[in-house]
Amino acid sequence: MGKTVIRHLLDSLKEIGVTDIFGVPGDYAFPVNDAICNDRELRWIGCCNELNAAYAADGYARIKGVAALCTTYGVGELSALNGVAGAYAEHLPVIHIVGMPKDVIQRRRGLMHHTLGNGEFDLFYKMTAPVVCARTILTPENALAETDRVIKAALTRKQPVYIGVPGDFALMELGCASLTPVPGPSSDPGTLAAVADLLAARMCKAKSPVILVGSLIGRYELRDAVRALIEKTGVPFTSMFMGKGTLSESHPNFIGVYNGRIQACDVREYVEGSDLVLSLGTVMSDINTGAFTANIDRSRDVRIQPDRVEIGPAVYPGVYIEDVLAALAAKAAKGKARVPFKPAGLGKPKGKTADPITTGYLYPRLEKFFRPGDIIMAETGTASMGLVTAKLPEDAVFFNQTLWGAIGWATPAAFGAAMARPDARTVLVTGEGSHQLTVQEIGQFGRFGLRPVVICLNNNGYLIERMLCEDPSIYYNDLAQWNYSELPSAFGMKDWECARVATNGELDKALTRAGKAKAGVYIEIVTDTMAASDMALALNRIVFKGGGWKA
Amino acid sequence: MGKTVIRHLLDSLKEIGVTDIFGVPGDYAFPVNDAICNDRELRWIGCCNELNAAYAADGYARIKGVAALCTTYGVGELSALNGVAGAYAEHLPVIHIVGMPKDVIQRRRGLMHHTLGNGEFDLFYKMTAPVVCARTILTPENALAETDRVIKAALTRKQPVYIGVPGDFALMELGCASLTPVPGPSSDPGTLAAVADLLAARMCKAKSPVILVGSLIGRYELRDAVRALIEKTGVPFTSMFMGKGTLSESHPNFIGVYNGRIQACDVREYVEGSDLVLSLGTVMSDINTGAFTANIDRSRDVRIQPDRVEIGPAVYPGVYIEDVLAALAAKAAKGKARVPFKPAGLGKPKGKTADPITTGYLYPRLEKFFRPGDIIMAETGTASMGLVTAKLPEDAVFFNQTLWGAIGWATPAAFGAAMARPDARTVLVTGEGSHQLTVQEIGQFGRFGLRPVVICLNNNGYLIERMLCEDPSIYYNDLAQWNYSELPSAFGMKDWECARVATNGELDKALTRAGKAKAGVYIEIVTDTMAASDMALALNRIVFKGGGWKA
């Protein structure tokens, strides 16, 4: 027998380095699930639910560069949809395989489970269109070409794709149409040369240039290229919140995170006073720009984006970021390292041992807890905002979900990241409100022998919402009161070190123990209801005193 | 100041009896969240996540006839989408209110959080189209007409609707366009009279008529009308799995559940041998018909559906089920109660006290545990299948999600049902695999002072999948091993009676105690990995020996 559709799909995934597939099995997806589990080079990673699986794939892709997700038709794929949309917004190539009813069933328009009961089988495929960069439903005839096209789209655009696999087609042999290879995008040589000249000239002329590193540098796996450019030219660099930790924050040229007008005054002054801001793969979204308080003069802001370069008012399309960086690195003049100042970090924890935990103690203490090589997964909300200006140790990476901002993302994403790099220490920092959305994925750490540090900030509700709504005490920001530190045991991890801490001294002790722990760690940190981080406080001031955010 | 858009929307909801709104708050939805919480006639019911909130609303609507759900833009609504789709498939009018970014922000195409970063703000509204029966985005100008139109659509079609509310519009006064009332659908008088005559004549002539009660009778709140028809004519009735417990199973005319060829031989013989099967609001889907083994001769099958009547090959559109039932009840001849036999139920539990729990003990014992008036929420899978032919006590109601079949539904849906009728006892029966998807909603029972009985069947994996896939032991059907009976404490309920039972005697004791419990109850029932219920075993035989299901 020749190669089947599913065999070809899985082989294609293996060719691009996929070894793990996150998901929840389901009957329509059995031919896919079976093929994955029966393939010794692939590992099925069953998650508690599909949304969690999508988030786990997102976290995994942040580390590995690509991830695969497999769900069943209808009920499965729709549950995953918010996670897929997040991967779209945040530029993560998650290859979503959906096991569909057999084509023969679809043609009969049968009244089958997991359908709307109306005989329409392509509705969910259509619904997914806005949140994927390419999609297909495989058949024996199209599988060779379509598998190739769609996987390449994911890798090129760094966004999710949807691959529907009808159960009967999965097990059929590929049709014999031969494949015409589709070339990847390539930069226009003329534009590329022109742009590289312009950029090199601007860099050469600039008196106080600065490089602003955005999140897409990580997504396009261009860390080394950017580091090489920085080291050749000596230009100092800053990063954005979305993209923090993309390059090691212990690099001598790093000056701290630029967050508009709301934090880190020295960084803001330097960036906004610079005569050339070279922005690399930045996303100028609301939260990422300190609620649009970032104020870089357009004439001094040069932006290299994945598929274009923007110099002042001029846009140069058709040149790709990896080519632009390479051409620029070749042409840019060498220079000595210019380091105007070092990032301040959060300083010493402030507060007495017996006192209740305040943010002045909490975040500086967390900063000290991080160690080289950590993977830090920071949930949307006041928790991650407290870490914006924390200085990360060497090669520690930091991820949050600034643009899409779906609370609940961080817990499964931390699981995914830990699976992607099990030898590193994964530290999850989440508020308890966000944690409640996806908490059951905690059990997966134990199941797969991972030993993360989970930091759950319990401030008695959705604190970031209390900061941004009219009446902080309004009851929609309240939550069911859980006993968080009992969760690891209930979810099957008997050997984890669990603690609930409410004073600075208890927190210090718990983190000291966590630093030496041989098992997973879960620390519930209880603070006052309104113990918000500086960035959250700044956003509160902008909303209520600054006349709101401009779009 | 005149009435605002949100005020009008909430008042319209109150007019149709909505008192509770399930959801998760979010900043774009604050104007909606605020208005709900500040309205003393409305109660905000915050859920752990949006999918759970949608399922809770689904469960609530099954009891109350309508439910409301409120989520934030993008991240919130997409997470809820699978739950909304389920309500569409299963005919539950869930009114989904989505708090959207201000219109002024949408017009500026701002790079805002919870967007895809592409300036498109109406994508999620478009994505939702296939899974709602009507949708709108409110403006001050259209709010009067659109609120009315969309709410009426939900109530008429018994399916979800989507109401987007941009934050700035929410707080603006209604425009002054006056409302032209839209009349609800009404039956064509000529068709109605003709159909009623035909049906009454068929019933009169039939020697062994039987009424088949489907799930839509509950959805259209026609229980009393159907009961009246049965009691006037004396015709015996059966029900389908999807619709079990719609009429009290202790009614003297009830003969048991009809489940095609796979169970309850006496019911099948009677139904398939009957010369008139009057099907009321039935959904002839795969699982609901015993994998399409239901075999009712079309010439003897008369179907009254929500918007049409089908008599043999003839379809009579334009007549509505409530009118048809009323006209038929008026014309049908009186008759004595005909009761060919009583439903057998599950009989005595079989097994020794010290033995491991088998299905022969488990399901009969659960049947005995149910008591009059119970709300039984049965999860998709082998767990609910074990209860198909259980005889329910007087006025006990039973819900599962047979068509959509999204595992995870039952846990939050049980919470929603319990909120809808807190004076009744809610019994959740779920497999542990399904439970893992949405488990955190357990904490809500304690938060709202509810005292359900949670039965969690731990058979070491997705058992229904083991029954239906090629290799039962394949590892995608395995799960993280939790300590289920510790969950209530971790989720905040210290006073619940929790047990883990593995023998018949332990199960018996735990259920006896549960029957007298003053607090919530959580029982983990451990069985063998392959301890499948009879219906699950029958489906297994059909798939592997019967040549598969026909669509």
Structure notes:
The structure is a homodimer of 551-residue chains. The first copy, chain A, is an alpha/beta fold and 551 residues long. Chain A has three domains: 5-170, Thiamin diphosphate (ThDP)-binding fold, Pyr/PP domains (Rossmann fold), CATH 3.40.50; 189-331, TPP-binding domain (Rossmann fold, 3-Layer(aba) Sandwich), CATH 3.40.50; 359-545, 3-Layer(aba) Sandwich (Rossmann fold). Helices cover 37% and strands 17% of the residues of chain A. In chain A, the strands form three sheets. Chain A has a seven-stranded mixed sheet with strand order 9-8-7-10-11-12-13, sandwiched between helices. In chain A, strands 2-1-3-4-6-5 form a six-stranded parallel sheet, sandwiched between helices. In chain A, helix 2 (30-37) links the parallel strand 1 and strand 2 (43-46). In chain A, helix 3 packs parallel to helix 4. Chain A is globular and about 70 Å long. Chains A and B meet through helix 2, helix 4, helix 5, helix 6 and helix 17 of A and helix 2, helix 4, helix 5, helix 6 and helix 17 of B.
